[in-house]
Amino acid sequence: MLVAVSSIKGAPGVSCWALMLAAAWSHSSDRVLVEADGSGGVVSARYGAPAEPGTGDLLSAARSGQMVAPDLSTVSQQLRPAVDEEPALWMVPAPLLAHQATKQWAALAGPGAAAMAADRRLWVADCGRVWPGAPTEHLLVAAQVNVVVSDSSVESLVLVQSRVASLPGSTAVLVVGNPTYGDDEIAQFTNADLVCSVPYVNNLSALVVGFTKPKRQGHRSKAWREALRIADELAGLAAMSSSVAGTQQPPSTPPPQAHPPPLALPYPPPKVAQPQSQAAEPQPAEPDEASPQVAPPPVAQRPQTQPPTPEAQAFPQQPPHLAPQPQHNPNINGAVRITYNGDVDAPIEPAP
Description:
The structure is a single chain. This protein is of the alpha/beta class. It is built from 10 helices and 11 strands.
């Protein structure tokens, strides 16, 4: 059985609550915490556990079909041994670097999710913050129960509503903090199967370390009691989901049509303009031998003008209204000077 624990935004404590739910879940078989956060793993560094065996070994086992082998020591590490009738608690750490974790889960999410969902043991996947297109989305789709952890703000609960609507199977919402609305109102708003509000605990990661000890350190805290209550409700929800899935009949599919009818568009499809570079150039029509040849009309030729002479270029002809008019100005010697627009020319003899 696979239970996926994830969030949408922020850091509401997905890793802590995933470990607490795995430790508090009353299950007859072993419980395995799988660190499937695409941003990188923190469990191995937080609890002082070695990095291997980890998700890389789990990837190799999934490819070879040995992921659900009875011996979990080849793909995971034991956090807490079996005590009395309580089964052991195992952990599969992820790489600390985000690009390594994303690369591994991009190859593991498909076959790994199907193998964990079909196994008789309890697999709790710490998916962390899941964004659209994340490689760990396969775990959310294959899980029997999805647990969405969110803070108590209104804007976060609005995002939870869209996430719950996109998830198949049973869905539970874990609200951390003091929400303004009750659990029933949040369940009606988000359409979740189960809503549990838990108080915010300072330094929860240090408190969770005691849950992995065989002497049950930290089991007297309020957070552990809340984890026990939520784990019991999630176990009942998973059992109900499994029974419903077993009784449902697969839908009968109609036989495929040989020629499906064309789609009726409400408007004609738009015409796509062909680029100018790819447009075919018009080809000249070939003449028909049977039709008479018609000569094209003559093209009128423009008359040719002679180039202007150097004298005309030096003294261009001006319009009549701009032509210079002679003015007779008396001179001291009795000669007359002809003035052209104020310029004095050489003197000439007066006319008789």
